[in-house]
Amino acid sequence: MEKLYDAGKARAIGVSNFSSKKLGDLLAVAPVPPAVVQVECHPGWQQTKLHNFCQSTGVHVTAYSPLGSPGTSWMNGNVLKEPVIISIAEKLGKTPAEVALRWNIQMGHSVLPKSTNEERIKQTLDVYDCSIPDDFLAKFSEIKQARLLKGNFIVNPQSVYKTHEELWDGEL
C-alpha cells in the first residue's frame, strides 16, 4: 500500500480491526501512517481507549456495525433496544437508530450503517438535523460494553492469536 501511496495511486492508507496497541506499533514504524482505522464501534462498544488514542494521533475512526448489527444471527447484538438509547430517542423525537448513529458522528467518527430497508436507509440521513445534548451524551457511559465481533474465527491453538486477549491486546 505504501508503494501505491508513493506512486500517487492511493490517497491514503487505512487499517481495520486494530487495537490501540497494534495501531501504536504500526505508527511507530510506518513511513506512511494510516489515515483511518475501521472498527466495530457503537454505543454498546464505544472503543473509548482506541477513540482517545486516535484523536491524539490524528487517525480517523470509521465505525462498522454502528447499530450493533440488529437482526444478524452471527453477532447477536442490538443496541437499538438499549434503554438509554430508547429514552434519549424519545426525548429528542428520533428513532433509536438515529440516536446511535448521531452518537458516533458526534464522537467524530464516520459511520457505515447497513440496511436493505429503504425507509431505514432514508432515516440515516436524518441524523444531521439535530445533536445530542451533553447531558444526554453523559448517559451513554451507563451502557454496558460488549464487543460483538470477538474474532473466534482467528483465535485457536494453531493461530498467531491463541486467545482473545492476545488478538485484542486486552481491549475486550
Automatic annotation (TrEMBL):
Signal peptide, first to last residue: none
InterPro entries recorded: AKR, Aldo/ket_reductase_CS, NAD(P)_OxRdtase_dom_sf, NADP_OxRdtase_dom
Taxonomic superkingdom: Eukaryota
PROSITE patterns to which the protein is assigned, alphabetical: ALDOKETO_REDUCTASE_2
MF annotations from Gene Ontology: oxidoreductase activity
Residue intervals of the NADP-dependent oxidoreductase domain: 1-143
Pfam families for the chain: Aldo_ket_red
Protein name: NADP-dependent oxidoreductase domain-containing protein
Native species: Panicum hallii
